[in-house]
Specification:
This protein is α/β, with parallel strands linked by helices. Helices cover 42% and strands 13% of the residues.
C-alpha cells in the first residue's frame, strides 16, 4: 500500500489534508506533488505510477500549446502564469506554476486570494529546480551573479505568496468590496507556510546541477530565517539525496528532478508527519480565540 509505506502514510496524509485548503506554488517538482495528491485523494494512485512516462501526461494548463496562452508560453519563456484549482472530496488543492518565481506568475494567485473568503491552511512553496539548470535563469534578463538573482527572485515570490493571504483585510465579491468584518472567523484561521527545497537525487544528476541545488538551499535558508514566525523549512534536498538508494534509482530517475515511487512517498510522509499535528494545533488555537472573543 502506498508504495510499500503502509497505512501510516495514508493516515498521516489524510490527517493533514482532510477538510483543508492546500496551496502549492512552484515548478514541476511540486506540480508532480499536486497531481499525485489529486489522484491519491481520489483513490486512484497510491504512488506515482511507472506507467506515466512524463509528468506532462498528468495534465496541466502549462501543457496546452503556447498559442492558447495569453501572450504565449514556451520552455524558454521567463514566466508563464498558470493556476489550477481542484476540489477533491473535502480538500481543496490549488497549484500555481512558476519556474523562476517571476512576479507575473503570482498574479493569478493574488486574484484567486481576492475572490476567496478564507485562507489556505497550508502553503507549500518550491522554487529552485530551474535555477539549478545551469544558466537557464538568464532568460529573465536580470543582471548580477547567479546567487544574487536567485535571492532576489526568492524574496519576491515569498513576499507575494505571503501577502496574498496574510496582509489582506478585504475581499472583492462580484466587483464589490466586502467589509473586513465579513467572514472574520475565516480570516483568523492561522496558516502554515512551508518552503520545500528542491529534490536532489545526487546519483542521477550532473555534479554541477547538484551543486547548484545545494547552493539554492543555502540561500533559501538564509532568506527564510528572516521570517521564522511565518515560514518553515522542509529539507527535501538533503532527504532525497540520502534516500535515493541504489535499488531506488528508478524512482529517482523520472527526469530531473522528479523522484517518484518510494522516494516521493517517503518525503511526503515525512512532510505530513510534521505538518499534521501543527495544523491541528493552529486550528485549535483559532477556535479558542474565537470562543474567547465571542
Amino acid at each position: 500500500m502506498a508504495s510499500g509505506l503502509g497505512e501510516a502514510f495514508v493516515s498521516d496524509a489524510l490527517s493533514a489534508l482532510a477538510g483543508r485548503w492546500v496551496v502549492l506554488v512552484g515548478d514541476s517538482s511540486i506540480r508532480m506533488v499536486y497531481h499525485f495528491l489529486i489522484q491519491f485523494l481520489s483513490g486512484e494512485w497510491e504512488s506515482w505510477p511507472g506507467s506515466v512516462g512524463s509528468h506532462y501526461q498528468a495534465g496541466s494548463c502549462f501543457d496546452v500549446p503556447k498559442e492558447a496562452h495569453e501572450g504565449g508560453c514556451s520552455w524558454d519563456s521567463p514566466s508563464c502564469p498558470c493556476l489550477e484549482d481542484a476540489f477533491v472530496d473535502r480538500t481543496r488543492l490549488t497549484m500555481v506554476w512558476t519556474k523562476y518565481g517571476h512576479s507575473a506568475d503570482l498574479l493569478p494567485l493574488q486574484r484567486l486570494a481576492n475572490s476567496s473568503v478564507g485562507t489556505p491552511s497550508l502553503v507549500l512553496l518550491s522554487v529552485s529546480s530551474w535555477w539549478g539548470l545551469k544558466d537557464a535563469w538568464k532568460c529573465l534578463g536580470w543582471n548580477g551573479s547567479y546567487a544574487q538573482q536567485y535571492e532576489r527572485a526568492l524574496r519576491g515570490v515569498v513576499d507575494m505568496t505571503t501577502s496574498a493571504f496574510i496582509y489582506r483585510r478585504r475581499v472583492r465579491v462580484n466587483g464589490t468590496d466586502v467589509p473586513s468584518t465579513y467572514g472574520r472567523a475565516a480570516w483568523d484561521v492561522p496558516q502554515l507556510f512551508v518552503f520545500m527545497a528542491a529534490p536532489n537525487c545526487g546519483n542521477t544528476m550532473p555534479p554541477n546541477t547538484q551543486k547548484r541545488i545545494q547552493e539554492c538551499a543555502n540561500i533559501a535558508r538564509s532568506v527564510l530565517a528572516e521570517r521564522p514566525d511565518v515560514w518553515h523549512w522542509f529539507d527535501r534536498e538533503t532527504l532525497t539525496r540520502s534516500t535515493c538508494l541504489p535499488e531506488e534509482v528508478p524512482d529517482c530517475s523520472q527526469g530531473y528532478p522528479h523522484p517518484t515511487g518510494h522516494v516521493l512517498n517517503r518525503y511526503l510522509h515525512v512532510l505530513f508527519q510534521g505538518v499534521a499535528p501543527r495544523l491541528h494545533e493552529l486550528q485549535a488555537r483559532a477556535a479558542e480565540q474565537r470562543n474567547t472573543t465571542h
